[in-house]
Amino acid sequence: MAKKGVRFPEKERDYEAEDRQRVQEDMDSLFAVPLAILPLETKGLKRARMVKNVKLQSAIEVFSDRETGSGQLDVEDLPAEFDWPEDKTHPDLIIMRKLAVLQSYDIYSLRITLREHGIPVNEDVALKLSDEKQAELAGYMRSFTMPLIMQIYGTDDMSIKSFSDVVGLFKDPDVRKAREKLQQMAEKLDIDIMEVPKFLEDYGDIFLSLSYYRNSMDNIMPIVNEFLDSMEGIRSNWQLRNDPALMKTCTMVENTINETCASISGRFETFNKASKNMWKNLNAERFRQVKGMIESYHTVIGGILCGLTVKMIHWKRLFPDPDLGGPVRRSEFIMSEMKQGIDRMRDLERAQPMGAVLNIDED
C-alpha cells in the first residue's frame, strides 16, 4: 500500500459530472465507501473513498485504474498529506479513524456502525442501494414479498402481483379502492392504517438487505470454489509440499474460508426458517422480531462477506483462469496476501455465533 508521496490530483474536477456514477457504485459495494457522503472539511478527501485492501486493512484510495493501479494512503498519513496543524487533531482525522475500524462498508453495516461510532452523514445522503442494484435483486426479493401478498390478499386479487403494487396503493387515483385495500392490510397485520406505510418500508428494506447479502454470497462462491480447488495443485507439487509453513498456511486459509462460508449459509437458513414461521400467521409484532434478529447480524455477515469478496476479487484478478499462474505463483500470493487479515473473518464469526432460531409460536 502506498504511503507518503501519493498526491491528490491538483486539477479541479467536476465532481457532479464525473464521479456521480462511481459514488453510487460504491454505495452498492461491500468494501468501499465514498467519502463524499460524509461532512468533511477537507475538499480533497471528498473525491476519495475508503476501501478495504487485499490485506483487509482500511485505506484511503486516491485513484484507481487498470493501468496505474490503486493509489492508497494510510489514515495516519493524512496530517502530512494535507498539512494539518500538529498541535491539535483535525476533525476529519477523527472521522477517518472511526471509519477505518469498520469491518464492512455495505450500507446495512454502515447504518449501524456509523451510528454507533457517532459518524454523521450529509443530510442529503440516503444510505440505500441504487435502483439498478435493487432491480438486480428482484428475483431474490420475490421469495420474501410474495408470502406477504398471499397472506394479505390471497390468490383472488389479480391486481396485486408484486410488492411494488402494494406500495403503489398509496398513489392509486381511486382513493376509495386504495383505502379499502390498506384497511384490509392493517386489519391483517393488526396495526393502525396509519402504520401501514412504515411497516411496508421496514419490510421491504429488511428483506432487501437479506437479498443483497445472499446475492453477494452467490456472486463470489464460484471464485471461492476455484480457489479451494487450487489447493490440490499446491499440495501435490513436489517442491511446495515439503514447505511446512506453506502447508500450515494453506490449511488455515482453507479452513477459515470453509468455516465462514458455512456460517453465512447457516445464518441464511436460520433467517429463512424464522421468516417461514412468521408468514404462517403474519402480524406486525412477529415481523419486528424477525427484523430485529436479522439486523443484529448485519455487521457480522457484512464483515465476513466483505473480507471474502476482497480476497476473491484480488485472487481472480491475478489468476483469471484456473490454468494460469501455476502452483508456485499461487502459493506466493497465499503467503504474501491471502493470509493477511483473514483471521478477522474468523474472529467476527466467533465473536457473535448464531443463536437459536427465533421462536415464533404458531397460533
Could you please describe the fold and organization of this structure?
- The chain is mostly helical.
- It is 58% helix and 6% strand.
- Strands 1-2-3-4 form a four-stranded antiparallel beta sheet.
- Strand 2 and strand 3 form a beta hairpin.
- It is globular, with a radius of gyration of 24 Å.
Short description:
Residues 7-21 have a biased composition (Basic and acidic residues). By secondary structure, this protein is mostly helical. It is 58% helix and 6% strand.
Key phrases:
single chain; 363 residues; mainly alpha; 3 domains; 15 helices; globular
How many beta strands in the DSSP annotation? Answer: 4
Percentage of residues assigned to helices: 55-70%
Calculate the terminal CA-CA distance, rounded to whole Å: 58 Å
Please indicate the count of domains: 3
Whole-number radius of gyration?
24 Å
Mean pLDDT across all amino acids: 86
Structural class: mainly alpha
Strand order of the largest sheet: 1-2-3-4
Shape: globular
- Spans of 5+ residues with little confidence (pLDDT < 50)? none
